[in-house]
Design brief:
The protein is an alpha+beta fold. Helices cover 18% and strands 40% of the residues. It contains two helices and nine strands; from the N terminus they run E-H-E-E-E-E-H-E-E-E-E. The strands form two sheets. Strands 5, 6, 7, 8 and 9 form a five-stranded mixed sheet that branches. A four-stranded mixed sheet has the order 1-4-3-2, covered by helices on one side. It is globular. The relative contact order is 0.20.
């Protein structure tokens, strides 16, 4: 295998790229657009992991298909987790369990869960 990546299909994909760049200090690896300007395929580097984005069409969205992107940054990265929280909180759909704000749980000293404004479910922790 050459590589693996996380890919999301979302509406308003053009706005999502700078949003996630800001949340994770991510670098854009590629950004290919359809003729109408929407994202055909974009890749962001989030701390060495590829997060791919594509504009969702109506038939790309499957109700009941639930996935959460869990990013484990490790001890000493609390500032990065808190920054991601501050950005992803903007117009978020909902905070999710087990911790709804950067806080402690049995397996992490700093963790939060959120479904962001694009509908992406995140669990981010040190």
């Amino acid at each position: 295998m050459y590589r693996s990546m996380m890919q999301v299909y979302i509406k308003n994909s053009v706005q999502a790229i700078p949003f996630y760049q800001n949340a994770f200090d991510a670098k854009v690896l590629c950004d290919h657009r359809h003729e109408n300007g929407t994202v055909a395929h974009a890749e962001l580097d989030i701390c060495g992991q590829v997060f791919a984005i594509c504009e969702a069409r109506e038939n790309d969205i499957n109700t009941g298909n639930i996935m959460q992107f869990c990013l484990h940054f490790g001890e000493g990265t609390e500032a990065l987790v808190r920054k991601a929280y501050d950005v992803l909180l903007e117009d978020c759909i909902q905070l999710t369990a087990p911790i709804t704000g950067p806080g402690e749980c049995p397996w992490s000293s700093c963790l939060f869960g959120v479904i962001d404004k694009f509908g992406v479910n995140w669990c981010i922790f040190v």
